[in-house]
Design goal:
Elements: H1 9-33, H2 41-59, H3 62-85, H4 91-114, E1 120-121, H5 142-146, H6 151-169, H7 171-181, H8 183-188, H9 193-217, E2 221-222, H10 230-240, H11 245-268, H12 273-277, H13 279-304
């Protein structure tokens, strides 16, 4: 699909770029509402990226590749959750260990299987098909947002809707939020907060498996540490989005737009390339600082009120 067919290609690219961030942040939202800061999102994305493309290449089926990649990611998420919740390990240390484990494991496996520690290409994987509806894609803004994307983009939007329903309209969502806000209340009902927290971690494994699959299957290749900080950005999106599904969607778009703009600016603006490439991360830091200041002063005003 030629980008010239879109009225605002920058918006179109931003929607695609935000997809792995959105998928990771949806899963991270569940763990956050359950009272756990899931800093393993980065590692889970890497696991999903590696195993999805490997299994897709071996089975010659993108569908099976995604399913098996998700299973591998959920398995690592289960390991992270079990060690944290049942062996009482520090969640920050366990999360960092998961990220390091994922990075190292995928590089070692890539070298052992393909004899390559760098970029591993999979020529038998075809590029993901997109939803193309002719001239409808030229509709200003709407065509750029809704058309010309692959299935992962639409699945991520569907998961936003599903997350809203689960979190706010089901007993599981109510109990999950209770586990984060007031665990003693959940215990008094004869329920285990740890069980809901573990389920939330498994959900993050599922969504990160999808996000990782998007990264590699869209390229037909695996690059070491292909997530490139998207898991960390997803954490920021959760807080910037005020811990709501819609807020996470909007925050993910902000970061997707920042990266799309940095890609565009490399050839259009006479600014050092290193600065332009770091622009999404600079915006992430500025956004987080600004949000923290906002929360601080809002807390002061509510206390005085």
């Amino acid at each position: 699909m030629s980008q010239s067919q879109f009225t605002f290609p920058l918006i179109h690219n931003a929607v695609a770029i935000m997809t792995p961030i959105l998928l990771a942040s949806i899963g991270g939202l569940f763990t956050e509402l359950g009272g756990m800061l899931n800093i393993a999102l980065e590692g889970l994305l890497i696991i999903g990226a590696f195993f999805s493309v490997v299994f897709a290449s071996v089975t010659e089926s993108i569908f099976l590749g995604v399913i098996l990649g998700i299973c591998a990611t959920v398995l690592v998420a289960l390991m992270f959750g079990a060690i944290t919740l049942y062996l009482k390990a520090n969640v920050f240390i366990t999360g960092l260990a998961t990220n390091l484990f994922a990075s190292g494991l995928t590089i070692v496996l890539a070298f052992q299987i393909y004899g390559n520690k760098g970029i591993v290409r999979f020529p038998n994987i075809h590029r993901l098909s997109t939803l193309d509806i002719g001239n409808l894609q030229r509709i200003p803004v709407l065509g750029d947002i809704f058309l010309g994307h692959n299935m992962f983009v639409y699945i991520s939007w569907l998961l936003v809707i599903l997350a809203y329903i689960v979190i706010y309209k089901t007993s599981f969502g109510m109990r999950l939020r209770g586990s984060g806000l007031n665990p003693s209340t959940i215990v008094s009902l004869g329920l285990s907060p740890r069980r809901y927290q573990l389920w939330s971690i498994l959900i993050s494994g599922l969504t990160c498996g999808l996000g990782g699959a998007f990264l590699t299957l869209n390229l037909g290749a695996f690059i070491p540490n292909i997530s490139s900080g998207r898991g960390w950005i997803a954490l920021v999106a959760i807080y910037l989005g005020n811990k709501t599904p819609l807020g996470v969607l909007l925050a993910s778009f902000v970061f997707g737009f920042a990266e799309a703009f940095s890609n565009y600016a490399q050839g259009a603006i006479n600014v050092p390339a290193d600065f332009i490439l770091s622009l999404p991360y600079i915006i992430t830091v500025i956004t987080m600082v600004g949000f923290s200041i906002y929360r601080y002063y809002r807390g002061l005003s509510s206390n005085h009120g």
